[in-house]
Write a structure and sequence with these properties.
Structural class: alpha/beta
Oligomer: single chain
Strand order of the largest sheet: 8-7-6-11-9-12-10
Order of helices and strands: EHHEHEHHEHEEHEHHEHEEEHEH
Helix content: 25-40%
Radius of gyration: 21 Å
Distance between the termini: 41 Å
Shape: elongated
Bound molecules: S-adenosylmethionine
Number of helices: 12
Mean pLDDT: 96
Strand content: 15-25%
Number of strands: 12
Length: 272
């Protein structure tokens, strides 16, 4: 196995890995940064190996990391052995993980998403905050959602913040990105009901019918759902609130709704 030892911050591969914090760096390379051995092993279990790995000398001396790195190198992953200072510079944090990787970005198409009568699809319209997006991917993974669809919005699911917040679930969830009109045509053709979440929704969030596949439509953090998208929904629902808060955080509202659909389906396929 070939491992390149690099300790210069000026090395082009190190500069490229650091550049993955920026949209331009991710667009130029088509890669994104993932951190930690746990995430790397979880990705490998899903058949996703990085193109680059940077690992500290100390990390390489530990059994678990050494085994993973050997398996990665055997698959042609470019492995860099380096020091904690370089890893901290790549991760832009003081106590970096001992293993950092760069994976190829890939999204699913809508047709990869199952749409049977038990389907649950989470749709995020104009989501803005990468922390919310990552948290929602993690929740989608936990409830076994069939897919997550991004309709518009500036948020990059491959940003370091979104990947961190997803805690590895980015690899596990079928994630698609399309315009709202294309999503709406697809979900109609597939027989999914569209349930919009709205502070002025007439119905309570736990009462809409779930005897067919459900797409839950979540609105933007500031503006909520646009009138046009609210009009496209079969149901508009609201999570009851009391007290002074005028709304819930987007990721919290998504979790409440997604878990409630799963509860109403008797936590189907939950491990014992
Ligand atoms: N000012 C925005 C508005 O008027 O809609 C608040 C948006 S809220 C922070 C972001 C998203 O979370 C909403 O568009 C909706 O999808 C969901 N949400 C938050 N609280 C909710 C509630 N009580 N019922 C239903 N959806 C909610």
């Amino acid at each position: 196995m070939t491992i390149q030892k690099i300790t210069s911050p000026a090395n082009p591969a190190i500069k490229m890995l650091k550049g993955l914090h920026l949209k331009k760096g991710r667009a130029d390379t088509g890669l994104f940064l993932g951190e930690g051995l746990r995430l790397a092993i979880a990705a490998a279990e899903l058949g996703r190996w990085p193109e680059w790995l940077a690992v500290s000398t100390g990390g390489l001396e530990r059994g678990g990391a050494a085994k993973y790195v050997a398996a990665a190198a055997a698959r042609g992953v470019k492995v860099i052995e380096t020091n904690d200072a370089i890893l901290a510079a790549i991760a832009k944090r003081e106590n970096p993980q001992t293993v950092l990787g760069a994976w190829r970005q890939s999204l699913h198409s809508l047709d990869d998403i199952p749409t049977g009568p038990q389907a649950l699809v989470l749709v995020l319209d104009q989501v803005r905050d990468p922390g919310n997006l990552g948290t929602i991917l993690r929740t989608a993974d936990a409830v076994g959602a069939d897919g997550v669809v991004l309709t518009g919005g500036p948020c990059d699911p491959f940003s370091v913040e979104a990947v961190r917040a997803s805690m590895g679930s980015l690899f596990a969830v079928r994630l698609a990105r399309v315009e709202f009109a294309a999503f709406n045509a697809w979900r109609r053709a597939r027989g999914l009901i569209l349930v919009g979440t709205h502070l002025e929704g007439a119905a309570r969030h736990d009462l809409f019918p779930i005897d067919q596949g459900v797409a839950l439509l979540m609105g933007n953090e500031q503006a909520g759902l646009s009138a046009q998208e609210a009009d496209a929904c079969d149901h508009l629902v609201r999570i009851p609130m009391r007290g002074n808060a005028d709304s819930l955080n987007l990721a919290v509202a998504t979790a409440v709704l997604a878990y409630d659909v799963w509860r109403r389906r008797d936590f189907r396929d939950a491990p014992p």
